[in-house]
Amino acid sequence: MNPVLISVIVMIGLSLANLNVILALLVAAIVGGLTGGLGLKETMSTLIGGMGGNAETALSYILLGALAVAVQQTGIVALISNSKALKRIIGNKKGVFIFLLAMFSGLSQNLIPVHIAFIPILIPPLLGLFNKLKVDRRAVASALTFGLQAPYMAIPAGFGLIFHGIIRDEMAANGMDVSLGQIASVLWIPTLGMLVGLIVAICFTYRSKRNYEVDAVQQAQLEVAASAENKISFNRTHAFALVAMFTALAIQLAYGSLPLGALVGLTIMTVTGSIKWNDLHDLMNEGIKMMGFIAFVMLIAAGYGDVIRATGGVDSIVQSVVGEIGGSQFIGGLLMLIVGLVVTMGIGTSFGTIPIIAAIYVPLAQSLGFSPLATIILVGTAGALGDAGSPASDSTLGPSAGLDADGQHDHIWDTCVPTFLHFNIPLILFAWIAALVI
Question: Where is the Na+/H+ antiporter NhaC-like C-terminal domain (predicted)?
């Protein structure tokens, strides 16, 4: 009767039943609050009060959506995505194309830490090309989610440095000192499981052709791109679109503010005449249309996470694992990973899960005789599990927002289910085995 477990099961069940994710989160939060003894009034006040935790993120998504629409209207992304050079690289090899997207997505975590900000700019203009090649978008969703999660797990740079730093600090706070070098030396092992899952998704599960309707906008993009090879060259508007994009990136890195970066990018495009002043109203509407849903989901997800924490069910479910282990590393390692999966699926953030579970997992791992390196694997993987596959995670919401720009991609069945199956299962297996061996 653990409130966290009940709430997460309700959220997943309602999501799989095709209930809107926002409504599923709201119902799950109420169920979790009531079963956790908070009462209806306290549950709703906690939910609403916690929504502010993702306010900046929500604003970022809406402004980035507007910037993405503005950049798309200049034609720069369509021009690049349909260039001769790119076509020579890709040819008709869909798998190569999708692996390139996974690599590009990975850069957003470490080399150029913009997280999902690139998706609304890059992916919607490529949908026409996806449709032409009959690419199964579930493979693309898997590639994008892999790029959003695997690099921060394995590489101590950008978001990865933050993730590894949290693991180091929380383990030290609970009596086990480890270095960043030790963390990086072992977390690549469970990440290797994600790579195996990605290969399976692209080369086997979603290899077959899948037909999508080509709407009028996509057809126009394809026709323009076909003529662009010989008739349309890189021009002033395209140049300022690139300036706006890189300036938005520079502002984010310098000031740590996505909303400010997106706003400056829109300002540059307006001042330079790349977009018209009178078009700003329509751009904002289109930006809200593209990214407004994900913005609201992130707001609700922050409140939902607060309700989950307030029930005290997280501590309870972790403590209950201790009584089931009986001194067995074999059973203990598996249960620790599964509990991490449940907690992260509910909270929606791997970075926020580490502090919650480390307080119990570090002493528990020591009592079971796990080595420091094995403990790193258990804590790091338990925190990351569920980032892929969670309906409330931006690692799934981001890809869905880009791939569903034409209304032909379902968030739950085309992003969450594929990424859950192909990434969480191999993550558990690789981490479990590695923790027992190391």
Answer: 144-432
